Amino acid sequence: MVRIVFFGTPAFAVPALEALAGSRHPVVAVVSQPDRPRGRGQQLQPTPTKVFATSRGIPVLQPAKIRDDAFLQQMHELAPDLGVVVAFGRILSDALIAIPRLGMINVHASVLPRYRGAAPIQRAVLAGDAETGVTIMRIITEMDAGAIFSTATVAIPPDATSGEMEARLARLGADLLLPVVDALDAGRATETPQNHALATYAPKITKTEGTLDWREPAAAVHNRVRGLQPWPLASSTLGGTRYLIRRSEPLEASVRAEPGIVVRARRDELVVACGGGTALRILEIQPEGRRTMTARDFLAGRGAVEGDRFQS
After folding, report:
1. Predicted TM-score (pTM) of this structure
2. What is the torsion angle, in degrees rounded to the nearest 10, for the CA atoms of residue 42, residue 43, residue 47 and residue 52?
């Protein structure tokens, strides 16, 4: 067995932590980012990995700075054989990477070398990719560039959101992780170098990316709607009000209207012209600060009429 220190913060990391906690390998500590204020009351909320670790009696460390000598000394005292990193959210120093006897490995939510970086799931959905996956890789100084132990792929359904894919990939990563840990323990793990010439990058999502550009083809607008869930969400302005577009469907039929124009607004059909003569059907829409509603409910309340225009 190997002594493991687990580095992870959000809900995505919990299935992998749960898999390790149920294995023969002891998790001697969980390192999470500090608790953050959340919600309307801005109360401090424990991170998802902290909640799980506490329920299992696993010690939790939440250093403000992971490069501090005091934290590095804690790591040395834990004497880990292996570090496992899943969506920790911080860059690890060479000094920290060098502490575990077997080094450190990472569960990354893409098929490397494609989509190195902070937002691989969202970038895959935004690009309209047909599939994605998970890679277990060795951590080195260069971001997501280490050798690969194992990969697995999964299809991205055409209507799947980033949030839905995140849940699927979290479980896939957990399933893929334990065999690699066992192989490292037995000294039979194999590592395949990445082809760096094929590397692409997935930069962090920004709030400004949520604004829809109706000049894009309907398929691209649809990918933005689903790719930016659960944050920051795709949005557009109609009649001075900002709306979040929650669910959509690109249509095959061509239209002759300027991008952003509402070309159909009756019953449950709210259809907006997009670039290249394409059109997008809005299925769910949310006026800012109010509840999400179906297109039928939105139109019944005279939310839009044909000829209105959504603005970027």
Report:
1. 0.95
2. -150
